[in-house]
Amino acid sequence: MIKAVKGFRDILPQEIPLWRRVEEEARNLFEAFGYSELRIPVLEKTELFKRSLGDTSDIVEKEMYTFQDKGGDSVTMRPEATASMARAYLEHALYHSDPVGKYFFFGPMFRHERPQAGRLRQFHQLDVEAFGYLSPSLDAEVICLLDTLYRRLNIRDLTTLEINSLGCRECRPRFREALLEFLDGVKEALCPDCQRRRERNPLRVLDCKEKSCQEVLQDAPDISQHLCQDCQEYQGQTLAYLDSLGVEYTINPRLVRGLDYYTRTVFELTTTHLGAQNAVAAGGRYDDLLKQIGGKDIPSIGFAVGVERTVMLLEKRRDLPQGTPFHCYLALLGGEATKEGFNLAQKLREKGIRLEMNHQPKSLKAQLRRADKIKAPLVIILGEEELAKGTLIVRNMAKGEQEERPLEDLEGLVGYIKKEVES
RNA sequence: GUGAGUGUAGCUCAGCUGGUUAGAGCACCGGACUGUGGCUCCGGGGGUCAGGGGUUCAAAUCCCCUCACUCACCCCA
To answer: Are A133 and A299 spatial neighbours (Cβ–Cβ below 8 Å)?
Structure first.
């Protein structure tokens, strides 16, 4: 049997209500905060991701779905949305019509990783980007948006918000130097992974999970001590805005993000409820990215929400939303009644009744059993007897009562069904 | 890419140190109740025991290989 590709999965009907809950809550909230939906393509030129994520990042080095299209171009299925959003923003010169561009996106991302709990090769992100302003109140607003989303979803208490500043193009390199110097002195004591990180992305050594590394790092330089005056003030103001809103967060000077393009404010929403994958949403400021991919020098900030992981948190709650219920089930007995019922079903559906009908010659018992299974509150019974009399039976399943009504009175029937379903 | 674990019905699993027709619960279909659901009782369909090879009189069970899935490392949402 042909099965789905590894790391790619179906989202079955019973899971859909939770997905819709997340999507709808997010859309409403994003729009309330002034963001417009912008839909980006699945495929981009490979170059876009190489330039934005950095050549040495794991995503670019080994996780991208990259191939040659028929024209010979190297193209890549997007592993994240920010680069594409920035590209679209620049390509359409949206900065001409408005100094600040606030956009959101929802869709699948692709990374060729080994799947495990909370990690798939095709996964979904909700993505929020604000292009144009370098302003602490904007940073605080973006973080507050994320905080509000999880409070609305009633899972904020399952998460922790961590914030840090990575510095700007002035002070970040200086910190990097200081860190490299320190790591050079202790390199023997580092785990093999950190030996490698030291070469490729030294900041990443800071959040190594290895206990021995964390001990060695006790005396590592602290980024907050290396921030320039501007960055320090910027972070101070951002945090002050968050404090004034009462957003709960912790400052984590060891928080570094995996992607190269981040500057200044970075943040992560993590959880301990999802196995080894603890990041639920994450983002930060990327003031140099737009220039890096060949555009104008426009400061920006954004974040991405892992939808599967968020849905998994929602599943921790017992108040799961149900799917859309039916109004009624149409049970039919006999060939003539089936023909008549087929037309009746369409008439009722045109009137807005959510109706499922029987399609196979089955006993009334079997049809009622199915009506019960799909939780239809009402069953319309139309058999040869009713047809002969020009009537039909409407049965209220919860009450176990039923009444006979004239077949011709469609308006009356619709009104009756709606009234019964309400009660 | 590395490591570990697990593969028996649609789902969750039992099947002891090899022993005859491979089981249960749930789900599905039907009957008891010829046209009235849920509860109960009874019955039914559904399995190349992941695949291949080996050991043996005999393999779901032991050995080897392959594949798949899961978890973890790595990385990240």
So the answer is: yes
Half-sphere exposure of A350 (CA within 13 A, CB side): 8
Instruction: Output the six-digit token pair for A45.
Output: 């030129």
pLDDT digit string, tens, across residues A85-133: 999 999 999 999 899 999 999 999 999 999 999 999 999 999 999 999 9
Q: Which of residues 160-199 of A touch strand B (CB under 7 A)?
A: 193, 197
User: Cα A113–A115–A117 angle (5° rounding)?
Assistant: 135
State the Cα angle at A310 between A307 and A314, rounded to 5°: 135
- CA gap A244, A222 in Å, rounded: 26
Could you tell me the strand order of the sheet in which A300-306 lies?
A36-37, A101-110, A122-131, A300-306, A279-285, A263-271, A159-165, A250-251
Could you tell me the two tokens for A173? Answer: 């390199």
Which residue do the tokens 């369409």 mark?
A: A346
Nucleotide nearest to A269 (CA to C1'): B77
The answer to whether ipTM exceeds 0.90 is no
A191, A197, A198, A200: CA torsion to nearest 10: 160
The CA distance from A1 to A144, in Å, is: 48
A206 C-beta less than 7 Å away from strand B? no
pTM: 0.90
Return positions of chain B under 7 A from a protein CB: 1-3, 28-31, 33-38, 68-77
